[in-house]
Design brief:
9 strands, 7 helices, homotetramer, Rossmann fold, alpha/beta, 9-stranded mixed sheet, globular
Amino acid sequence: MAVTVTVWNENVHEREDDDVRELYPDGIHGAIAEGLEAPGRDIRTATLQEPSHGLPEDVLAETDVLIWWSHCANDEVSDDVASRVVDRVHEGMGFVPVHSGKNSKPFTRLMGTTCNIKYRHGGEKERIWVADPGHPIADGLEESFEIPSTEMYGEPYDVPEPDRTVFISWFEGGEVFRSGLCYRRGRGRIFAFRPGHEIYPIFYQDEVRQVLSNAVDWAAPTTGAEAVWEEVDPIEPLEDT
Amino acid sequence: MAVTVTVWNENVHEREDDDVRELYPDGIHGAIAEGLEAPGRDIRTATLQEPSHGLPEDVLAETDVLIWWSHCANDEVSDDVASRVVDRVHEGMGFVPVHSGKNSKPFTRLMGTTCNIKYRHGGEKERIWVADPGHPIADGLEESFEIPSTEMYGEPYDVPEPDRTVFISWFEGGEVFRSGLCYRRGRGRIFAFRPGHEIYPIFYQDEVRQVLSNAVDWAAPTTGAEAVWEEVDPIEPLEDT
Amino acid sequence: MAVTVTVWNENVHEREDDDVRELYPDGIHGAIAEGLEAPGRDIRTATLQEPSHGLPEDVLAETDVLIWWSHCANDEVSDDVASRVVDRVHEGMGFVPVHSGKNSKPFTRLMGTTCNIKYRHGGEKERIWVADPGHPIADGLEESFEIPSTEMYGEPYDVPEPDRTVFISWFEGGEVFRSGLCYRRGRGRIFAFRPGHEIYPIFYQDEVRQVLSNAVDWAAPTTGAEAVWEEVDPIEPLEDT
Amino acid sequence: MAVTVTVWNENVHEREDDDVRELYPDGIHGAIAEGLEAPGRDIRTATLQEPSHGLPEDVLAETDVLIWWSHCANDEVSDDVASRVVDRVHEGMGFVPVHSGKNSKPFTRLMGTTCNIKYRHGGEKERIWVADPGHPIADGLEESFEIPSTEMYGEPYDVPEPDRTVFISWFEGGEVFRSGLCYRRGRGRIFAFRPGHEIYPIFYQDEVRQVLSNAVDWAAPTTGAEAVWEEVDPIEPLEDT
């Protein structure tokens, strides 16, 4: 059965900064979408500037996995759209916030924490280690891979203790970071992935594309069981109390 | 060092319903507060009807553990007060939502899920089993205790997988429920405890008072380490990249 | 790709007790195996009485998911075979201990706890609630299902806090039990499932067969990443220290 | 109430290697014990060479927290003593394996995994980051501390997903490691702490002593609830089945 993936991007840097536009002429969403192309996948994109940020109810209803890139415009996402995304995650939609998508309204609402980090611009080497080689999001990877130049994110990362820690990053400047974390909220699977600053060609890198593709497979909804959330009659007879 | 506990109650049923007022003449908050009295504790109460719901910044700043009872007025809690509570939990304040406090704004925001359940009014027997006898919130309990008559809450309980499952309830009518769950969000410890409908004398029951008292000890803030969340310089020298 | 399932059974009650043999003429392993039949699955059985208990190295090497039923003969399993099973789980083989398989050498070694419970023979009703309706092991189930007559297992269940609590049982006699728990050890997925006493026709019940079939799908190995566990040279240059 | 701490050391390098003896004239156990001295603590030491490795039943029965340093002699610990330690952890004794204590029989039996790592001798800088600044084992620390020269341990670390990840190490040579992990098995709290190779003065370092002292406070047993693990009568009346 086809998996429908929507790649969402705030799409601001690409429109305002020549260097970013040159690097990502089809937008970061375009580069991510290209990397996800595979048989059995229907890949779409949506951006902040579209009506309802490109995420009206019918689009979300059809989306199996939502990949989310955002940075400087996290506050411009409407509360309504953010709530709609959160609701769909509860129903089962996979959600993959990338890079500063950790600061997005949907992710912080799903986590219930500040999602604070330390950071550094300027570019330095990151080596991403697989901490959980048995996890399907690590399928096909070697034990580590490098991103030659990136923004640094450093611990402590103020998120709830994750279900699984898939990746941990080493940074040239001396910090570490839990770069791939798995959660579930309601029926929805969430994978928070660190890499991806807009001024580096990270979304063209093979390993990053492999991880995002694995994450789509992992986060796609499954059937599950029925859930009844309402006032109910007793199944067993009650004594008078 | 003294532990400051604030017992918060929406205090609506007690004012509007004669039976509840007769049962809890000092309010549910009064009954909970009475049960927590112990050397080294400073116990306060606060209610929805007070200015800032009795939770202005200075009160929260002094509170080590906030116990929260709410039911019909969850929506009347202001967003500002709810945010302030959440922020204080992130800073380290313990938070113990009781009964329908699971539907409160602070708890649902800290969880990131719907916190949905099934339920039944009318009164029936609940037997609360200790699933984690090594947990300090179970200190001094036998392996189970009964609440003779209560509202039923039934699974599935739509919360994140907890850090620890301390209690699981058996209900006469045929359901089960995870009645004592531990979480951490930021530096703050959270214990969600199921019992406590307003028309039963549950907050006078010894075992319930024992659990709440244990929860206060468990949830009180600890020192922790420093956390730096800002732009930082490299610790190690960077190559030109 | 075909999934190879080995259903292991101590096969003692069926040979020693007429009632059990009449109920399970092909053994409990036969009944479980029958219930797992599906396209793309290669289902095998193995029993205690065979050489190497039917689990020589080549059989385990080919097995993707091992289902394990045991009860009175847990101590008769050789330490070597138990170690081999544990090693294969570490390598990625799924492991599904059923009923008293919780007391088996492989399961207790994988857990590191006593796996103690309370219990009661004689037959009573069990209602198994789905606590995690978003979990694939609950696929296709209603919100609960009943086993008309069974042995009771009661909390506390002395196992490590699980990755996910999929099922919680209600028992007619007043107890509760976490009846479906997920773990990972190394690359291997483990699902401990409570039902299945030998004197009841539980392994012919549709919902039980559905759960075991779902568990096979969930526990089957995935590719994962490379893991290097040895002495290694530095990747980055070291200063003299 | 006094907390009784037993510091166990295989005590082999100190007796066989002049450099180690010079660095740790009272043994690594002596240096660790010295660092734990505090009012309300009764600190003892025990070594491999003593009868029952210094851990006969009465010593373990009195021990609240067992700190364990081992390396080259892990296989020389008798199975009986290892089982006794595991049993006492189940009963509530805290257990703090340090450095290669991760390969000890008690720790690997409690984890149920291989506890494999990658490693490198020769000495390099390690920077230990606090990933969980709200955890009491990090009390009083800055956001990171350095060990000037140490053996490297690198991910993947083949342990079960921990309850909490308190520390993550950055290594000069390019690796990362989860250096402080919390578990519970039965009633016992376990804290696995990475630092501590025998040829470096690590156990004289203030931050390391602070962590071990915090770990003793955290891992000390608490009261808990009663647990009944036996055949039991029904609490509720059973229908004939």
